[in-house]
Specification:
seven-stranded mixed beta sheet; single chain; 16 helices; Udp-n-acetylmuramoylalanyl-d-glutamate--2,6- Diaminopimelate Ligase, Chain: A, domain 1; 3 domains; Protein-Tyrosine Phosphatase, Chain A; six-stranded parallel beta sheet; alpha/beta; 20 strands
Length: 458
């Protein structure tokens, strides 16, 4: 429920005041941009698209029970004639209107807000925060991390929210700055900085600058969370900014860690004291993600012991580190949501280490890594060399870019890979499935489950 009256919504989106308040004093339940998903009580935003203007669907949204609609002024006059008495908010541009309403609701909630960005791990850090931070947390669902998705995520926060945790994507210079203007974060976290989106930004220095926009988006009392070893961020840390670092040598670090049965037990040191954590994962990179999430809690002055008591609640978003058991003790490590050189190396190291301790054969099924620019071939070759150096038994490439891994076998796309991988897997194998989102390796995973038997999360 977006607990804002019609006049306040009109002021936030930049519309003339709509029809007077109704006797029931109703408020919109949620913000929706897809007219096919509109239900009674929704506030529909008719956003312009590449092929169609969403404003043309506003009349249908009202017919389906929408509480109100936000449309461009070119649609407003006609709707007012054809839908007398309806709540119609006519604005210059619907997308900024959506963003401004999200900022108004964030201010109305009045709770602390965390913004998380980084080249890898931001979704996992968000998922861990949602679980372990001892507050009523509302976090971005899935990948609602863009100039459209993040405002929708904020507007979905219930009135009783005590902490907003928003993921922020970076596709170009200025995007994170734009997201910070909407969310107004109190704590800004950068998980890491790596060679991601080189095709768009050109240089590593430009990537650092783009990620650092989240630090510049903090207010005077804002707090920053960054890796201890990311020296490239140092020029962007103003003297007045309170900074919390994580990782070896940082403010939040693992004093000890042991892994067994897909779990990690770690004693974590923080400026607020030490605490024993038991995490439902065994990957080294997820322990680092957990340190980032704990650092966010520390920046919010939360008790480490209270965070440690909530680790059983951790659930990662779909396609990120899923463990799927197939018949014959075949284990799929389904990490195919996305990939870049940093996350690919971490996944390969995990496959070679923790997953192979009991002598099981290891198979790396790797899709290409997109948006790496002119250096793409060398980045892929480095990953392929790592796979062989770490003793992975078999490597299968999927997609054109994956040829540069120099794999043992290759398939042109995810659908063609199903038969190839199914024939390759044998009893007791552990198989990593990872690649950029554009490769669509979830189709491979789904195909293997359908072909080889029902899978269950491990």
């Amino acid at each position: 429920m977006i607990e804002l009256a019609p006049d306040r919504i009109a002021a936030a989106v930049g519309a003339a005041e709509p029809a007077p308040e109704t006797e029931d004093g109703s408020r919109p339940g949620r913000a929706v941009i897809d007219s096919r998903e509109v239900g009674p009580g929704d506030l529909f935003f008719g956003l312009p698209g590449a092929n169609q203007d969403g404003g043309v669907y506003a009349a249908g949204a009202l017919a389906d029970g929408a509480w109100g609609v936000v449309v461009g002024r070119e649609h407003g006059a006609e709707l007012e004639r054809s839908q007398p008495g309806a709540r119609i908010f006519a604005v210059d541009e619907p997308l900024p209107a959506l963003q401004h309403l999200a900022r108004a609701w964030r201010r109305e909630l009045g709770c602390p807000t965390v913004g998380i960005t980084g080249s890898t791990g931001k979704t996992s850090v968000k998922d861990i925060c949602r679980a372990i931070l001892p507050r009523r947390v509302h976090a971005s669902p899935e990948n609602f991390n863009t100039e459209i998705g993040m405002p929708l995520a904020i507007l979905a926060a219930p009135p009783e929210t005590e902490l907003l945790v928003m993921e922020m994507a970076m596709r170009g210079m200025g995007q994170i700055a734009e997201l910070c203007e909407i969310a107004e974060p109190d704590v800004a976290a950068i998980t890491n900085v790596g060679p991601v989106h080189l095709e768009l930004l050109g240089t590593f220095e430009a990537i650092v600058e783009a990620k650092a926009e989240i630090l510049h988006g903090l207010g005077e009392e804002g707090r920053a969370v960054i890796p201890e070893d990311e020296e490239a961020l140092s020029p962007h840390l103003r003297d007045s900014l309170e900074v919390f670092t994580f990782g070896p040598g940082g403010d939040v670090f693992a004093l000890s860690a042991s892994r067994e049965g897909g779990r990690t037990r770690a004693r974590i040191g923080t400026p607020h004291g030490e605490a024993d954590f038991e995490f439902p994962f065994s990957e080294e990179h997820n322990l680092r993600n957990a340190l980032c999430a704990i650092s966010i809690g520390v920046a919010l002055d939360l008790d480490p012991e209270a965070m440690a008591a909530r680790t059983a609640r951790i659930e990662f978003s779909r396609l990120r580190g899923e463990r799927i058991e197939l018949p014959g003790r075949i284990l799929l490590l389904n990490d195919c949501y996305n990939a870049n050189p940093i996350s690919m190396r971490a996944a390969v190291e995990n496959l070679a280490g923790a997953e192979s301790e009991d002598g099981r054969r290891t198979v790396a099924v790797l899709g290409g890594m997109a948006e790496l620019g002119p250096q793409s071939g060398s980045f892929h070759a480095e990953v392929g060399a790592l796979v062989r150096d770490r003793g992975i038994d078999r490597m299968i490439g999927v997609g054109d870019l994956a040829r540069d891994y120099s794999p043992d076998a290759w398939a042109p796309d995810a659908d063609a890979a199903v038969e190839l991988v199914a024939a390759e897997l044998a009893e007791g194998d552990v198989a990593l499935i990872k690649g950029s989102r554009s490769v669509g390796l979830e189709r491979l995973t789904d195909g293997l489950i359908a072909r080889m038997g029902e899978g269950e999360p491990g």
